[in-house]
Amino acid sequence: NAGVMQNPRHLVRRRGQEARLRCSPMKGHSHVYWYRQLPEEGLKFMVYLQKENIIDESGMPKERFSAEFPKEGPSILRIQQVVRGDSAAYFCASSPKVAGGPTDTQYFGPGTRLTVL
Amino acid sequence: ILNVEQSPQSLHVQEGDSTNFTCSFPSSNFYALHWYRWETAKSPEALFVMTLNGDEKKKGRISATLNTKEGYSYLYIKGSQPEDSATYLCAFWGTYKYIFGTGTRLKVLA
User: Fold this and answer.
1) In this structure, are residues A107 and A95 in contact, taking their beta carbons and an 8 Å threshold?
2) What pLDDT shows up at residue B29?
3) Under 8 Å CB-to-CB from A77, ≥6 apart: which residues?
4) Does B72 contact chain A (CB < 8 Å)?
5) Residue A110, SS3?
6) How large is the greatest C-alpha to C-alpha distance in chain B, in angstroms?
7) Does B77 have pLDDT greater than 70?
8) Is B5 on the interface with A (CB under 8 A)?
9) How sure is the predictor about A84, in pLDDT bands with cuts at 50, 70 and 90?
10) Does the distance separating the beta carbons of B100 and A43 come in below 8 Å?
11) Of A105, A112, B32, B49, whose Cβ has the fewest other Cβ atoms within 10 Å?
């Protein structure tokens, strides 16, 4: 059973470009979480999704950031008009729907390291 | 203001020593507490999900306890081995908030 997959592993963008980060959850997992780790900082929650539904986006910046988890295909974290401050490691995690939500074990992907020039 | 604090920040122990770390979190609106082990250049690996006051969980030489009324959890490692060297993270999930601590960096010396 393959683990959580993220691609690309490294992404370089120039200021003003768009960044698309993909997360394929483990087989059978219907919940996805996105986290960001800024340089010299800890992990910060961004958004929690289940298929076709955003459950909690309280950690998402209000502008330029969006996330989706369609019925088919990976979850996408999209950053429009990137700025240098968006440079970070972006991790996604997935969980099965057992109890549903924060009481389920989360399995992390390897992360995407975004560098904005 | 919600805050999750872990202590100590870093720790060096000799192989074979037992050790423990603390995670302090808000005692209100508690939903779950997660412990992760995070090795350098890898991704966080789930250790425990704890939900009930008084919970005790164990996985091999690692165990954890939970006190939701006073807002703390302890992680214990018995007989530390060099392969236990990692950062140990706790994460608090409260109502509409999921907050990570900054971690305890453990180095086990052979």
Assistant:
1) yes
2) 85
3) A20, A21, A23, A34, A46, A47, A65, A66, A67, A90, A92
4) no
5) coil
6) 43
7) yes
8) no
9) very high
10) yes
11) A105
Nearest of A32, A2, A16, A19 to residue A113 by alpha carbon: A19
Instruction: Suggest the residue from B51, B98, B100, B104 to mutate for an interface test with chain A (most A CBs closer than 10 A).
Output: B98
Distance set, CA B76 to CA B21, B23, B47 (Å)? 7, 12, 12
Helix/strand/coil for A106:
coil
| DSSP conformation class of B95 | T
**Tens digit of pLDDT for each residue in B85-99?**
999 999 998 876 788
Confidence at residue B96, expressed as pLDDT on a 0 to 100 scale: 62
What's the token pair of residue A104?
């389920």
Q: Which amino acid is at B83?
A: E
Q: Are B86 and B107 in contact, with CB atoms under 8 Å apart?
A: no
Query: Pick from B79, B76, B62: which is nearest to B17 by CA?
Result: B79
Q: Do A108 and B102 touch (CB under 8 A)?
A: no
Q: Tell me, what's the pLDDT at B2? A: 67
